[in-house]
């Protein structure tokens, strides 16, 4: 069922006069959570520090290498050589194997029932999963509404442009600004990301 973002939008527009016209310019919120999925987390590790295009290509080769569906069982059953041949570094192979072990546990199954910080702590305990990856998973897979990936460079660039900073502000400053957006920081972040794709939106309102 689609999320109703109208309460979030009304709250953000009332709380932040600079963000309000950005929301109008961007239009309806299209943040659509994909649901709890091991494959989504595996893709997040595959995508680290490479381009979107490279990640997509490796993801397709990885699916072929494991027999079509990326699951803990198929990953653990696939030899390292086959994973490396798909384009993964040795480090990412190790990360995916650690993730696969975690994916077989009850803790992973219960992740959607955990609070935000507890879920982030559980995910970041897995090798290769940093706080940014965990926050993105909570936003885009689990549909958590009050997550702010303050370390994200694209988000920091958007904040710089809209709020008149001389340079991308540090994560601490983004978190401080984000207090305005509680309890809908995920929605605010989505609008700022989307606005960067639309020429002139951030500069016209900032």
Report a brief summary of the structure.
With 206 residues, the protein is an all-alpha fold. The protein has helices at 6-15, 19-26, 38-46, 52-65, 72-77, 80-85, 90-103, 106-109, 116-124, 131-140, 153-163, 171-178, 185-196, 201-205. Helices cover 61% and strands 0% of the residues.
Question: Overview of this structure, please?
Answer:
- The structure is a single chain.
- With 206 residues, this protein is an all-alpha fold.
- It folds into two domains: 38-140, Orthogonal Bundle (Endonuclease III, domain 1), CATH 1.10.340.30; 145-206, Endonuclease Iii, domain 2.
- The chain has 14 helices and no strands.
- The longest helix has 14 residues, at 52-65.
Fold topology:
Blueprint (H helix, E strand, L loop, with lengths): L5 H10 L3 H8 L11 H9 L5 H14 L6 H6 L2 H6 L4 H14 L2 H4 L6 H9 L6 H10 L12 H11 L7 H8 L6 H12 L4 H5 L1
Helix pairs in contact: 1-2, 2-13, 3-7, 9-10, 11-13
Number of domains: 2
The whole-angstrom Rg is 18 Å
**Main sheet specs:** none
Straight-line N-to-C gap: 35 Å
| SS-based class | mainly alpha
Element-level helix/strand string: HHHHHHHHHHHHHH
Q: Please name the CATH architecture of the largest domain.
A: Orthogonal Bundle
What's the number of helices? 14
Q: List the uncertain runs.
A: none
Q: CATH fold name of the largest domain, please? A: Endonuclease III, domain 1
Mean pLDDT: 93
Strand tally is: 0
Give the fraction of residues assigned to helices: 55-70%
Strand content: under 5%
Global geometry:
elongated
CATH class of the largest domain: Mainly Alpha
- Name given to the CATH homologous superfamily of the largest domain: Hypothetical protein, domain 2
